[in-house]
Amino acid sequence: MGEEEGKSNNSLEPMEKKRGGFTASIFIFALLALDNMGFVANIVSMVLYFLGPMHFNLATAANTLTNFMGTNFLLSLLGGFISDTYLSRYTTCLIFGSVQVVGLSMMTIQAYSKALQPKFCGLDKPSCMEGGIGFYFYVSLYLWALGSGGVKGALPALGGDQFGHKDEAKKLATFFNLFLLSSTLGATIGVTVIVWVSTTKAWYWGFFISIMGSLIGFIVLALGRPFYRLQVPRESPLIRVFQVIVLAIKNRSLSLPGSSAELYEISEKESAFTNEKISHTEQFSFLDKAAILGKDTKAEPWKVCTVTQVEEVKVLTRMLPILLSTIIMNTCMAQLQTFSVQQGNRSMNRKLGHFEVPAPSIPVIPLIFMCILIPLYEYFFVPFARKITGHPAGITQLQRVGIGLVLSAVSMAVAGIVEVKRRNYALAHSPLAPGGISLFWLSFQYAIFGIADMFTLVGLLEFFYREAPAGMKSLSTSFTWLSLSFGYFLSSIFVSIINAVTAKIAPSKLGWLHGIDINQNNVNLFYFFLAILSCLNFANYLYWASWYKYKPEEPETKVQLKEVDKHLVIEHENGSNKVTAEEVSSVQTEENKEKVASL
């Protein structure tokens, strides 16, 4: 095992302090703003695109969007895995970014060409997609999902790597807040300018602007290459996990030693050029059996694991309940991009003076709130809370997530109340009657959920990045998007199940979410259902958050190299160490130089 450790960990590209930091992050923030400008604009208006030119009914349009979003975020795992194992995070972003641009280009062509659009087939069918047109539609949609998802899997970790030194803990928390701020600024432009262009001019113009934004963003990211701290891919994190599981099962009949010091771990000399060593913890002690080195057994892969490798699996295991506890919140968010958009499009007054606001543009209200609140949170709340708690980020990541979960439940309750008011007006007046309640009633549910997202999204990104083992940063950060993915898929499941169940028990024999006319549905009851479910989920989250034990601080034996072109190989021959170094001119301190010399 020691031999594998030496070979697999030498792939860490040097992290010198002259690189990275906020100078490098500027290029990442630029990509986030430009790319998110089109992404958010399209997802908030896509239901109308599906209902209009693509001729879907309401439930099918909502499910098509949530399935797309679920796939998009699920594929972030692919991007995270590839950037941890095969390609650098920087290269992964550029490759998947190219795929994203191709997918968006195909969607633009379909929106422009009438020959590639389905013909209307009646209100009784869920969709008019068929044949080659349907094939083209889904290929372009899911190429976009693949490209965008892969970028999401690598980009947050690429940004986090720019603050990899221990003395940059406060800066890392600031980075993730500015990460969200950049996304929010881009989304604000998207839901106003691009949505207006799409809904009033032509859908293909909205898609085209999105393409140009993404293309310029990835060019900017590429230009930042000389400023980044980059981590070169290394051993597959999944193989390391499987090794621990297999050996723990294989050694299940063995007794654990009386002291954790008797478990196998590489020596200080062997670990001099590895990323980190993680201290032993008592949780999930059955996994410790993977680190039992039997008598006359050579330390080799698949025969014994190090304590650090076992602890990596424990960290991932502890994360799972936190991940699962945030899924319901993301199911709630899916409703703001589907049914809430349709609410604003029916029986609501969208006039702002002489200007008619497109219904998908209503999220600009919470986005503006977030643009103001994020700097206030970072530069006023965090320093104040830091003085009280002593935590670098003011409050812990899990406390931040908990606040967001509470607010998401409140948002769904408010959404239900607003829908009751809107629907009562719609049923009491002719569909052609002018006026209606103001569109800005929807701003309450959007604003509350926007603040919830500010707390939860950043909290999860920082939590999964900080807690992740060094070789799993991208994959672990992708857990944030995995939660979003499961939330969107769960939304599709809820819509289908609730429609089917309520159609059987309702006197009208119609489901809560049937047909294309939201005025004849009971979306308000669906919102209240999600509010109750969110409260139950928060109680579940409290249990797991209090149970979670943060990863112990790693010992001060970490050595990081500086230059990109340096090469170091540690070979183990019969238990002895042989070091071959080419231009190992830089380790961070004189103390670390002595460690290198001693090898």
Question: Main traits of this protein?
Answer:
599 residues, mainly alpha, two-stranded parallel ribbon, two-stranded antiparallel sheet, 18 helices, 6 strands, 4% strand, globular, disordered N terminus, disordered C terminus
What is the strand content?
A: under 5%
Largest sheet: 2 strands, parallel
| Average pLDDT score | 79
Give the number of helices.
18
User: How would you name the oligomeric state of the polypeptide chains in this document?
Assistant: single chain
Verbal overview:
- The structure is a single chain.
- 63% of the residues lie in helices and 4% in strands.
- It is mainly α and 599 residues long.
- Strands 1-4 form a two-stranded parallel sheet. The chain has a two-stranded antiparallel ribbon with strand order 2-3.
- It is globular.
- Mean pLDDT is 79; it is low at 1-15 and 554-599.
Write the layout of secondary structure elements.
Blueprint: H1 2-8, H2 21-51, H3 58-74, H4 76-85, H5 89-112, H6 131-161, H7 169-201, H8 203-223, H9 237-250, H10 307-325, H11 327-336, H12 339-345, E1 348-349, E2 351-352, E3 355-356, H13 364-389, H14 397-428, E4 437-438, H15 442-467, H16 473-505, H17 523-547, E5 567-573, E6 576-582, H18 590-598
Helix pairs in contact: 2-3, 2-7, 2-8, 3-6, 3-16, 4-5, 4-6, 4-16, 5-6, 5-8, 6-16, 7-8, 7-13, 7-15, 9-10, 11-16, 11-17, 13-15, 14-15, 14-17, 15-16
What's a concise summary of this model?
By secondary structure, this protein is mainly alpha-helical. It is built from 18 helices and 6 strands.
